[in-house]
């Protein structure tokens, strides 16, 4: 939202319009496919979101209700009006919902990531108003409130609470209540999503432990099911399984994907192919809301692994007071502070923020709007499978005295500075 000099009436920028359109299509797709909604609720929500889109499209774009419903099954690019600038996005050639009626990972990530950027823009403009309701900002609000709940109990307790959220995104109610999280944090756990249930069962991802999505498939006339993590990297590297339908007993899963990382990246690789999950009862089970899982648990696994691996590699130096590795310092000002004494006796400090964005251009724009990392980190580190983002992020980071690197490249740099061999 922008204003012109001498005019207090707000107007849409291209980014504001894109974000509203993108978000509204996601909510409309959810309204179209969520089984819990009755016919009257479904049509009321669809009509409301149709009105929101007409407002964002502007009077020059004609969008009948029937065409609006048909567009919900198309690509994001096909949903946008011709006047909208698409140059700020890597790709928009993906669908909002998949064949099973579930919002796709790319569409969900784009909505959340652009929400974060919109928040930055709003703060810089000192704009106390918003075109977006609490419902529309709920994933962002959940994320912020969750962090606030685990803050204020001291630095050590914050690390324990944050690690618990990362390691326990789902489970039975009784077990979750014994993990020591603040009681208010449990309200961010909800019943297992409908798209992750088979009869009365659900299956945890073998990487992140969040409920995997269940899809019905047919091959050669035979019916079978696929259980795979909604985070595509986990599904591609082992968290993908198939099973035959059962009449009453829990199904037995069989792996349907394998992945072998490069040797130099093996130490930081999150392997989902070493176990086969057992079915768990849906009754009395809970899972973190999707937004909290995607932007707390998924990157948090990388943050924990980097901390664990570097702590092991630099352990001997730490015992001699020549290395110190701190996870989530100052209650998450950034993700890592690593201090090592080099061979020449000089002290080197690495302050690190780990980012796992699907859409690199949105992350780069966020850095520009923040004039660098908002917590003051000097290194921006992405998971190894995001290596193709490094050229763009390096160019952006260089403007603010920062460096961008993949996790393995960064870990090698730290070890080389400390005079120890990489894993």
UniProtKB/TrEMBL annotation:
InterPro entries: pPIWI_RE_REase. Pfam families: pPIWI_RE_REase. Residues 300-420 form the REase associating with pPIWI RE domain. This is REase associating with pPIWI RE domain-containing protein.
């Amino acid at each position: 939202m922008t204003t012109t000099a001498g005019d207090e009436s707000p107007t849409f920028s291209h980014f504001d319009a894109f974000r509203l359109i993108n978000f509204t299509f996601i909510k409309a797709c959810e309204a179209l496919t969520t089984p819990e909604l009755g016919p009257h609720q479904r049509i009321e929500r669809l009509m409301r979101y149709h009105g929101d889109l007409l407002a964002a499209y502007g009077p020059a774009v004609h969008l009948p209700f029937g065409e609006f419903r048909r567009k919900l099954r198309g690509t994001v690019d096909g949903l946008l009006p011709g006047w909208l600038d698409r140059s700020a996005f890597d790709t928009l050639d993906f669908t909002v919902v998949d064949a099973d009626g579930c919002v796709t990972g790319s569409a969900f990530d784009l909505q959340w990531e652009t929400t974060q950027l919109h928040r930055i823009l709003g703060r810089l403009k000192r704009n106390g108003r918003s075109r977006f309701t609490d419902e529309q900002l709920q994933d962002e609000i959940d994320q912020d409130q969750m962090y606030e709940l685990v803050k204020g109990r001291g630095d050590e307790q914050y690390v324990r609470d944050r690690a618990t959220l990362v390691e326990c995104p789902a489970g039975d109610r009784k077990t979750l209540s014994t993990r020591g999280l603040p009681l208010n944090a449990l309200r961010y756990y909800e019943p297992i999503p409908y798209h992750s249930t088979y009869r009365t069962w659900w299956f945890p991802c073998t990487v992140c432990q969040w409920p995997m999505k269940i899809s019905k498939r047919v091959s050669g006339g035979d019916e079978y099911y696929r259980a795979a993590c909604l985070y595509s990297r986990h599904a591609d590297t082992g968290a993908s399984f198939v099973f035959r339908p059962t009449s009453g007993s829990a199904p037995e899963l069989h792996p349907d994907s394998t992945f072998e990382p490069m040797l130099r990246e093996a130490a930081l690789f999150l392997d989902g192919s070493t176990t086969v999950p057992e079915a768990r009862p849906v009754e009395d089970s809970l899972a973190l809301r999707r937004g909290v899982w995607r932007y707390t648990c998924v990157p948090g696994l990388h943050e924990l692994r980097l901390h664990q691996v570097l702590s092991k590699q630099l352990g001997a130096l730490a015992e001699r007071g020549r290395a110190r590795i701190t996870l989530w310092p100052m209650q998450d000002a950034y993700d890592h502070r690593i201090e090592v004494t080099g061979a020449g006796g000089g002290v080197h400090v690495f302050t690190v923020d780990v980012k796992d964005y699907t859409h690199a251009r949105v992350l780069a724009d966020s850095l520009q709007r923040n004039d660098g990392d908002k917590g003051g980190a000097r290194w921006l580190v992405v998971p190894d499978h995001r290596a193709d983002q490094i050229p763009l992020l390096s160019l952006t980071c260089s403007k603010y005295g920062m460096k961008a690197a993949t996790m393995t490249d960064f870990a090698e740099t730290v070890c080389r500075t400390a005079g120890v061999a990489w894993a």
